[in-house]
Design a protein that fits this description.
The chain is of the alpha+beta class. It has five helices and eleven strands; from the N terminus they run ααααβββββββββαββ. A hairpin with a 2-residue loop joins β6 and β7.
Length: 254
């Protein structure tokens, strides 16, 4: 029965397209002829179980539309829930120091239980923050003659050079190999996390690998680049270390 219906439909469409005996001959443009051909192909294909029609089923459209509505609703609910959590955190009573409950932006950074040296897996040494510099380039000619390994900030930017003194307080020479540990460092400047510059400096703390004589120290640095305005208005500064020891954060300037 279905085969007969399909055959009848094909014949009717063919006669219409050819303008046969059903009335006045109709002149079709190439575009209209293509539309008739496409439509007839879709109709025939729709009744052929071995072919997928290009015509989209209305049920499929409604199903996809409903899925999108459900997804949007879930997103709105999640955002509302997050806002509710933030509002509850802000409503927590103050601890007497002007800060709110745990997780607020104004909370003090907890003091890590391990030292910087332990965090980067060189516990035999002492690592001490000694200050920072803001400059256009590092090192400058007064610090070193080896300018080939230096770096310069882009126009309008400045380099923030943070210094750490690595000391060998033992009575024998020791190799300080931070490079093999591969810790990841970040600087937080005025509450904003900053990515460090990748350098080939011999005294880059993140890649430092050298023998430090007994009782001697080495000045190492971490460098990031920022706008001149940000570099000249540093109020808070901290170091974040990500290694096998976790991700402690050390307040350097407050």
């Amino acid at each position: 029965m279905r085969k007969a219906s399909v055959l009848t439909m094909i014949i009717m469409i063919s006669l219409f397209a050819a303008g046969c005996a059903f009335g006045q001959h109709v002149e079709l443009t190439d575009e209209n002829s293509q539309i008739v051909t496409d439509y007839s192909t879709d109709v025939v294909s729709k009744h052929n179980k071995y072919s997928n029609s290009r015509l989209v089923d209305l049920k499929t459209v409604r199903k996809e539309y409903q899925k999108q509505i459900d997804l949007d609703a879930k997103k709105k609910n999640f955002i509302a829930m997050q806002r509710g959590v933030s509002a509850n955190a802000q409503d927590q009573p103050s601890d007497g120091n002007g800060s709110g409950g745990e997780g607020n932006a104004g909370d003090a950074v907890p003091v890590p239980e391990i030292s910087i040296a332990e965090a980067i897996d060189i516990p035999e040494f002492d690592v001490e923050y000694t200050g920072y510099d803001v400059a256009v380039s590092y090192p400058d000619s007064s610090m070193s003659d080896n300018i080939i390994m230096g770096m310069t900030a882009a126009q309008g930017d400045r380099l923030l050079i943070v210094h750490f003194l690595v000391s060998n307080k033992s009575d024998q020479d020791m190799e300080c190999d931070v490079l093999s540990v591969k810790p990841q460092f970040r600087l937080r400047v005025n509450g904003e996390r900053r990515t460090l510059q990748q350098t080939i400096l011999e005294n880059d703390l993140s890649k430092y690998s050298s023998v430090i004589p007994a009782g001697d120290s080495a000045d190492t640095v971490l460098i990031c680049e920022m706008s001149e305005a940000d570099a000249e208005n540093i109020e808070t500064l901290s170091l974040i270390v990500r290694s096998a020891a976790g991700r402690p954060e050390y307040v350097l300037e407050e």
